[in-house]
Write a structure and sequence with these properties.
Layout: H1 2-12, E1 18-23, E2 37-43, E3 48-52, E4 55-59, E5 64-72, E6 75-82, E7 85-92, H2 93-96, H3 99-108, H4 116-123, H5 127-157
Antiparallel strand pairs: 1-2, 1-7, 2-3, 3-4, 5-6, 6-7
């Protein structure tokens, strides 16, 4: 995957940070998305340019309502709810460990509800540590859900 990024940077004469995402068809910031279309994100200090084929969209942090990350099957999934639409895509393991990709993702962290999962993912030195970070995160979510479920059951029994 890194070769796509290097080729793209070379072809377009880009010196800035670039990340590659494969978009899901649920993405709405672009028209006519096919499953797994490529989207390059280019970091420009005050905004990020989303580039798909000949179409580009600039997003600043002010345009972003909410950000969430999830790690699944060795990929980093990113969901951006923006004023210009929804972005839903994944970044392959070999690319989200690149400094370029980290810089772009860290730009969006202030809008993230729970950046601890992303930080555990990026900062993990090995899969063993990462597995336990994920397990801990999952258990915390399960614990929160159980507390809410218990409260709801008590409410409905009244």
């Amino acid at each position: 995957m890194s070769k796509y990024i290097e080729e793209y940077k070379f072809q377009h004469g880009i010196k800035n940070n670039v990340a590659l995402f494969f978009m899901r068809k649920e993405t709405t910031i672009f028209n006519d998305i096919k499953q797994w279309d490529k989207c390059f994100m280019i970091f420009n200090i005050n905004y990020v340019t989303f580039q798909k084929d000949d179409t580009s969209i600039d997003l600043s942090l002010d345009d972003v309502n909410d950000v969430s990350f999830e790690q699944y099957d060795g990929n980093l999934w990113l969901v951006l709810n923006t004023t210009k639409g929804l972005f839903y895509g994944c970044m392959r393991y070999d690319t989200y460990k690149r400094q370029d990709s980290k810089n772009i993702i860290q730009y969006f962290l202030p809008k993230c509800q729970d950046p601890t999962l992303y930080n555990a993912l990026i900062n993990s030195k090995n899969s063993f540590f990462y597995y336990f970070s994920m397990k801990y995160h999952y258990l915390k979510l399960k614990e929160k859900f159980n507390k809410v479920k218990t409260k709801l059951v008590k409410l409905f029994k009244r």
